[in-house]
Amino acid sequence: MPDSNFSFRPARREDAETVFNVTKVSIAGLAGASYSRDQIENWMGGRTPAFYEGLIARGRMTVCQREGVMVGFVDVEPGEVTRLFLLPEAAGAGLGRRLLEIGIAQARLRHSGPIRLEATIKAEGFYRRCGFRSLGRGSFSHGLGGVPIEIVYMEL
Prior knowledge:
CATH architecture of the domain at 6-112: 3-Layer(aba) Sandwich
Number of helices: 5
Distance between the termini: 22 Å
CATH superfamily of the domain at 6-112: Gcn5-related N-acetyltransferase (GNAT)
Shape: globular
Strand order of the largest sheet: 1-2-3-4-5-7-6
Number of strands: 7
Largest sheet: 7 strands, mixed
Radius of gyration: 15 Å
């Protein structure tokens, strides 16, 4: 489980560039073995820190920090965990599960049905261990273009 050096808080506007960087590093370090070089290089689809400023402004993103440095985050919409990214060096410490728990609780606000998410191929096993079930495969729906990224539709 996460130790006392980790803290969780709502994302703030000034976190946008760090959230952008955590996403890029997480994709390259954790998803690289499951996807082609083209998919990894184009995953961000032209996103910039301003894209994440917009997400943060909705008030549904939580960041995880270790000793004041962001190591991951989760973002949601009602009924869906839309993004959960960790720095590779933070993986395996229970932080993904804790961020997912926070995300599920937030996704349930003003939503009474199942909680859905789109998992990377590599993350499917993690989400299964957390109680999600696979519904099928498809392409990442939150992408901004580029090479299609195969994902697993999952539901809790």
